[in-house]
Every structure is written in C-alpha cells, then in structure tokens.
Amino acid sequence: MSDHPIIRVQHVVKTFGKVTAVNDISFDVRAGEIFAFLGPNGAGKTTTIKMLTTLLHPTSGTLELDGLDPTKHQTDVRRRFGVVFQDPSLDSELTAWENMDIHGVLYHVPRQIRHERSEVLLKMFELWDRRDDLVKTFSGGMKRRLEIARGLLHTPKVLFLDEPTLGLDPQSRNQMWTLVKNLNKAEGVTVFLTTHYMDEADRVAERIAVIDHGRIVAIGSSAELKQQTGTDSLEAGFLKLTGTSIRDESATAADQIRQVSRVWRR
Amino acid sequence: MSVIYVLWLRELKKYVRSRVQIVASLGSPLMYLGVLGFGLGPVFQRAGEGKYIQFMAPGVIGMTVLFTAMFSGIAMLWDRQFGFLKETLVAPVPRLLIMIGRTLGGATVAVLQGALIFVVTLIVGFRPASLLAVPLAFLMIALIAVIFSALATALGSSIKEMQGFQMVMNFLVMPLFFLSGAIYPLDGLPRVLGALTRVDPLTYGVDGVRGLLTGRTHFGVALDVGVLLGVGILFVIFGAWRFSKLEA
Questions:
Q1: CB contact under 8 A, A83 and B13
Q2: By CA distance, what is B86's nearest residue in A?
Q3: What's the complex ipTM?
Q4: Cβ separation A106–B88 shorter than 8 A
C-alpha cells in the first residue's frame, strides 16, 4: 500500500438552500485501502459520494481523485472510478450480460477485453449461469452483485459503494463483503463504502470515518476509534460519538418516488 | 457513435420485449378510431367532408406518436432515481451523446408504434391516396417523433416530482393532441381556437402526414416540413441543454 492518497477532500462544504448537508469535512483515502464512511441517516454520506463521483459540485472546498479535480476533469475522473449507488441503476429489462456490455461500451472498453472481463467478473460474482436472464428476475442480492461486477468492468482505481448491503439478508451481506475483500486484494482497487451497520465497517474497513450532521467526528482504524471513545465495541463508540437521538428527515422528491417504486415493485 | 448506437439499441430491445405494453398502448388509439370514427363518421359525411376514417387516420397516427414519445420522458424521471439513467450520468461520455442516443431510441419506438397504428387504420378501412407517398409520410412521422422525444427529454430533465408529470399529461399532452386538428378540420374555427392550433407543432405534423397520405392539407406540406424542422432543431437544442444540466 502506498501512502499517496487516492482521494483527498479538503474543507468541503455542500449546502442545499438553507440546509448544510456537508459542513467543512477533510480526509484522505490511501490507495488500495478499504475506507468506510459510517454515519446515521442524513449525515452527509451520500452527498459526499455524489460530489466525489462528479454528480454534485461542492459549495466550497477542494476534492481530488487520483490527483484530479472532479469538478474540472469530469471525464478523466469518471474513467477512474466505479460506483454502486444506494438505489439500483441496472436496466431490469435487459439481461445481466447486456447490462455489462453497455457499461463496457460507455467506458470505451475494447470488445475483446469487455467480453473477457465480463466473463471473469460474472463468474467471480456467481452470476455466470444467469447471464442471459433478464435482470428483473434477479433477487436483491444478485442485483447488487451484478452492479458491483459492472462497476469493476472498466478496471477502476476506486470503487464507491453507497450502502451496498441495504435491504439484503445476512447471507447475502456476508457473501458481498467476502467478495469485496477478495476483490480489494486481487485487483488492488481502493474501496470507499458507506454504511450504517457498525459490524460491517468493523469487519471490512481498514479505516473508518464517522460522520454526523455533515461533520467528521472521528477517523481512524476500528481499534483506534474504540480506544478514542473508551468503548469496547464500535457500536458503543458510534453511539457515544453521534448520540442516541433518532434522526427525522423530511421526505425529499427522491423519497416520494422511492415510495411509488415500492408500490410498483420495480 | 458506438455510444449512441448501444443506447438506441437498448430502447429498441426494451420495446420489442414489452409485448404487454405494446398491446396496452394500442388501447387509446383504437378507442379514438372506433368511438369517434363510428360516432362522428355520419355527421362528417353529411357535412360534405367525405369519409371520416380518411380524415382521422393520420390524426390518430400522430396522436400515437405523440403519446409514445412523451411517455419516454415520464419513464426518465423514474430512470433517473431508480434506473439505468444514473449509470449513464457518471459514464465518461459527453451528455450530448447520451441525450441523442436516448432521444433517437425513444423516437424510433414512437415511429414503430405509429406504423403499428397505420396498419390498424388500413384494416378498418383507411386507404392512402398513393402507396408511393407512404415512405414520405413516415419521414414526417419520424420528424414528429424526434420533436416530442426531445421535448420529453427536456421535461424529464426538469421535473423532479411524480406529480409534475400528471400536470404535463393534463396541461400539455392532451391539449397538444386536441388542438392539433387530428380529429377535426382546421377551417372555419373560432379565432382563439384557430390561433391555438397554429402554435401546436403537432398540427403541422398531422397536416403533413394527412397531406402526404390523402392529398388533403391545410397549410401545404412544404410549410409543414419547414415548421417541423424549425421546431425540431429548437427542441433538440433545448432538450440537450436541459439534459446537460441534470444533477442526480
């Protein structure tokens, strides 16, 4: 592992109207590590990922991914990362193979490499036998696996996973993390993940940043965080850092659509 | 080019695979053809305007194209949050290519759907004046499809809430259809209505298709094509601009 940071975030602020979603955060992610962003709902995790993945511009502060500014070098930055969003972004009317193939074309992966790598990844993620089935027939866990496989097709340097295990059963979650860890080792890809499951962060991440109300309240390895908070579990440490009050967020337009999508089971 | 091609192909594959949707979308055109065709046919004939099916078939084709194209915009709102659109928004590809691929795909589907209705009108008794004009009429139909697919892209990029689309359907799509002269002749209309029909791009589309297929036209095919090309360029630019501003 080199000490050169693959992601550098300095004094980043993001406001939406009067709401400050991210309030002056700074951190580095080292190349090749698994880095977890841990925080309660509405803490600013997704907003941070959206800024790093060029979907949102920060209000102030600077971002760097592999030495490039996502706001200035959008295309170059986009080539360097793969991302699995919180909400699904597969085409459910297409097959697993077609989803992979379109991704390959969008990322200018030459046909031969595209096909070889799709095969390797689909096999690794145990989806090869189902490659010609429509994605809408897949289970939640299979869809998530396919999204991760797809995100890796263009051999990115960084893989962003925004709450990848949300809504999955314990078996699928377990399998998912084993895969992610293996992958991190095999390909050396840096993994930036968000979760609000303490045990997951504890299990897979080398370093953890705890974010709350748009601020980073602690950062370090799991052992360091436990030591820092004087607790013996990450969960107790987390609650000590972020408090026990429940976060009530007001529903956004996205939440409304999410509601509708549940009704339609898409 | 390959980017435009795969996105176009994607829309087509989805269309071919959704047989239920194809059948369902034939519902309202069939209803208009059946109910209005039989209901208003005798009056139309008595007024000395000839067979109503000859008049309204191009209108119903235009309506089908309009509805199909606009629905692709509704799908986009969904797609942006829960679908494939987000995947394309972070791809290292200019947004313009994505917009073109999607719009062409949506437009192609709309043309196919129009062709399907064209066949249906033939079955219920519509007779084009000359078969040679049919390919030309389809070029016109393609133009209508591109215009409304581009408009749908612009709206899909601008509206954030589901309810917004209810508004679009009621206050834009339905008026576009009813003001287009699809189901009634444009001559002798009250002043206000006449003026409104003239700002509706679909009016020129339906008039052009009707002119080519039956020889009956209000503005003349040349003017129709001119207006459609102008509006088309405008809408494509507008759609591309809105799409480029899209934040997920």
A1: no
A2: A89
A3: 0.84
A4: yes
Nearest to A4 by CA among A217, A225, A190, A209: A190
Domain that holds residue B8: 2-244
Cα(A157)–Cα(A180) distance, rounded to whole angstroms? 14
Provide block-wise average pLDDT over 10 residues at a time, chain B (248 residues). 92 88 84 86 86 92 93 79 85 92 93 94 90 93 95 88 79 92 89 93 95 92 95 95 84
Task: Spell out the residues 6+ positions from residue A32 whose beta carbon is closer than 8 angstroms to its own.
Answer: A1, A2, A6, A184, A188, A189, A190
Strand pairing class (A5-16; A60-65):
antiparallel
Q: Which of B7, B79, B84, B95 to mutate to test the interface with A (most CBs of A within 10 A)?
A: B84
Kindly list the residues of chain A whose beta carbon comes within 8 Å of any beta carbon in chain B: 50, 53-56, 74-76, 78-79, 83, 85, 87-94, 98, 101-103, 105-108, 134, 150, 253-254, 256-258, 260-261, 266
CATH superfamily of A5-217: P-loop containing nucleotide triphosphate hydrolases (3.40.50.300)
pLDDT digits (tens, 9 = 90+) for A227-244: 887 777 777 777 777 776
Give B163 to chain A, closest Cα distance, Å: 10
- Yes or no, beta carbons of B2 and A85 under 8 Å apart: no
Say which residue the tokens 């930055």 belong to: A77
- pTM, rounded to two decimals: 0.86
| Element containing residue B30 per DSSP (H, E) | helix B27-31
Q: Where are the domains of chain A?
A: 5-217
Q: In chain A, what residues touch B13 (CB-CB under 8 Å)?
A: 93-94, 98
pLDDT at A266: 41
CB contact under 8 A, B85 and A105: no
| Chain B residues closer than 8 Å to A137 by CB | none
Distance from CA of A226 to the nearest CA of B (A): 36
Count up the domains in chain B and report the number: 1
Q: How many CA atoms lie within 13 A of A93 on its CB side?
A: 16
Q: How far apart are CA A222 and CA A236, in angstroms?
A: 12
Nearest 5°: CA angle at A203, between A200 and A204? Answer: 85
Strand, coil or helix: what is A250?
coil
Q: Give CA separation, A164 vs A125, A142, A216, in Å.
A: 14, 12, 21
pLDDT tens across A165-174, in order?
887 888 888 8
Determine the pLDDT at residue A259.
Answer: 63
